[in-house]
Amino acid sequence: MKRANRILLSAVLLAVSASVVFGYTLNGRKWFSSSDASFRLNSSSAPSCCLSASQLQNQILSGLGAWGILSNGGSTSASGAKNDGVNAISWAKLGGTTLGVTSYVTTDTGQSQLCNGNLLYRFVEVDVRFNNAFAWQTSSTCTNGFDLAGVATHEFGHAAGLGHSSVPAATMYPSVAACDFSKSSLDSDDRAGYSAIYSCH
Ligand SMILES: [Zn+2]
Known about the structure:
CATH topology: Collagenase (Catalytic Domain)
Strand content: 15-25%
Helix content: 25-40%
Bound molecules: zinc ion
């Protein structure tokens, strides 16, 4: 009886550990100081459909706030992916099916950390752009648009140091469907990836 219980328990434990399969990847960079990781928003060229200016801003900033190392530094006139000393968030007409893009503008490869077995270089400047050619909609009115908060959370995951994940439920999965509003909440896979980068100093 006891023995059977023990066998059953170990089988259950095995099943639990087998289901924890992470799919995250890292992009090989990290912010060495939170004071370096301040982002500024340029709201010019924002799309007029379908969210208000304050909704657009709030959803972008909620994505920024999902990752502890990143912070909101206010507004800027800087835009695009340029080496100008500003971590700029801006709007642009991006090609094809691109909802957003994160550019690792400057990385100091002379400074590195070995963190949980991963060699990570120092982020100096990152710029993030969102596509103003798409319809960004709310869950209550969505027809064929996209969730800006979810896409922002994904892009700022890159800005924090993550690559793409193979886990479909993860925010860092490389694609998102229209009217999918699940990506603004981090999956355990996203949290594990972030922890792999920032759980050491
Ligand atoms: Zn991506």
